[in-house]
């Protein structure tokens, strides 16, 4: 056990930091979930990242990456969040579809989709959930009907993050007449294809963070299926593992938010009770525990190990820690917590309210925490179904 | 950067763990209680023969010259089995202190099985003082080395039947007073206790899982109901995210900095909380059986209750965490204590 970075790892951190210092835009970009302009500003940032070859550092060089290991990935993420760089508009692509394609995609699919993903040229949305199939994902009804070298897609998808402005989606469909976990396929389709209608859904704060997708006889080539026909469930579960594991929510995100929380507490601590300090300490401990756990997982993966159902413990831990973090900030702000940043006397309230509203979704998306607890109980601990 | 145990560390831990699990089943604990035995002589001899008491002693003292991180998995296993014998306190705290004192004969005796009892400053009672050969006691903050024959002991009954706590009456003299202080004893105590606590937490979960699989209600095992699954899963999450903190705390202990000490406090707090949650969950999952003497959960619940306040209360350790986050920089690049020292 050696809890120190090597000289090479330190040099890598310095390299990332220097690039971020020189390139991260001053101040936040406009939201990617409100306007096309905000979305395109984020796409422009993705292109800039890719020009510096920072789009997805763990991918092989020929696919637009740097071929780096997971420890360097964590260092990259730490510097990314430390620099307050923009949220990755293509996170569904680079963190979910990308690794899935690396595992299940054909060489042709990898060459076609991964470099354009790393560059932000194609921004991806996930099209899995349906109005009647959320936690029970195997209950989806949307169909892919084989017609020669094509599929014809029909049905309705919902809760697709970024789909309002995204370019393509990766969707879960089933062969007509198939049931439950059998007969599913993961199929890629452009969101501007004939027969696709996207209807934004407003979150409680008005941001169009997700959308419904209606598919009416949408024709796509069979070559755009990811993985074997009928193996969609298997492919999706691998993706879900990435989602809950160490890619989607790297610890740096929370550690940087906690750093800001501590600064907020320090600015107000003279008028706050000691109990608030204890909550700040608790949130710091949890963000650090998450980081240490992820470093241990990365070390295990580097030694040839795998991540199984314990990825579900990650999902529960980061989503709950995020809500504690936001609530502690709001309690520090006291009666100003309800103020929008636009309020004239909002002072240093910042965007903790927005942070809180987003955090409330954490225990729901990427598989609700109730489903995660089922997975831990059944697959980690062996309790009966 | 490598946050994983080495092959050697895993091998030593595995061997010790197998021995402890094999020899220290709840039935063995009950047998010892019936016989009013303070320790299982055969198991203690095995602990000595395996060299576990000397792991942290220097090579020249017939030890292994290892570090706290090498012992942390064994301490976890001791918690997992509810070990009555003072393996962790002797090997993890007493032996390193005797080595620092340079007392070769007492060190050799300790490694050979004459356990060491620790009366750290502020500790009202001393555990396992009756079976110790050497007592390391506090007069104010000063460290004194006292022979077992020079103390008077008054037993203080603990809820944990295997905690043998004593008030120690003794007279500090110039002869007992040591020239060196307690050093990092408190931190070693906290880390080793935290390690036992995560072992206790995992054991409580394992007991709950086993019972939930076999107990039927409404025609099905209770473990098939989500209400039960979610209780146990929540406890498992607490243990999963305490374990790496304890390992990191042990690995960073030698740094002896504000950041490394805060990590130790962090470990002690979350390991205590995880053990508390897991043992209470195990009681709940067992239903009315959970609060009986017949079911084994109480051995672990009682040990968790005793160890939570040992080697620093949650209030003490929270204050150390607050000191670290208020006086030193925090952030995503400062997870590891060596980097905090560099940044400060």
UniProtKB/TrEMBL annotation, chain A:
Pfam families: Acyl-CoA_dh_1 (PF00441), Acyl-CoA_dh_M (PF02770), Acyl-CoA_dh_N (PF02771). Residues 6-121 form the Acyl-CoA dehydrogenase/oxidase N-terminal domain. Keywords: FAD, Flavoprotein, Oxidoreductase. InterPro entries: Acyl-CoA_Oxase/DH_mid-dom, Acyl-CoA_Oxase/DH_mid-dom_sf, AcylCo_DH-like_C, AcylCo_DH/oxidase_C, AcylCoA_DH/ox_N, AcylCoA_DH/ox_N_sf, AcylCoA_DH/oxidase_NM_dom_sf, Mycobact_Acyl-CoA_DH. SUPFAM superfamilies: Acyl-CoA dehydrogenase C-terminal domain-like, Acyl-CoA dehydrogenase NM domain-like. Belongs to the acyl-CoA dehydrogenase family. This is Acyl-CoA dehydrogenase family protein. It comes from Sphingomonas natans.
UniProtKB/TrEMBL annotation, chain B:
Gene3D superfamilies: Acyl-CoA dehydrogenase/oxidase, N-terminal domain (1.10.540.10), Butyryl-CoA Dehydrogenase, subunit A, domain 3 (1.20.140.10). Its EC number is 1.-.-.-. Residues 6-102 form the Acyl-CoA dehydrogenase/oxidase N-terminal domain. This is Acyl-CoA dehydrogenase family protein. Its cofactor is FAD. It is an enzyme of class 1 (oxidoreductase). Keywords: FAD, Flavoprotein, Oxidoreductase.
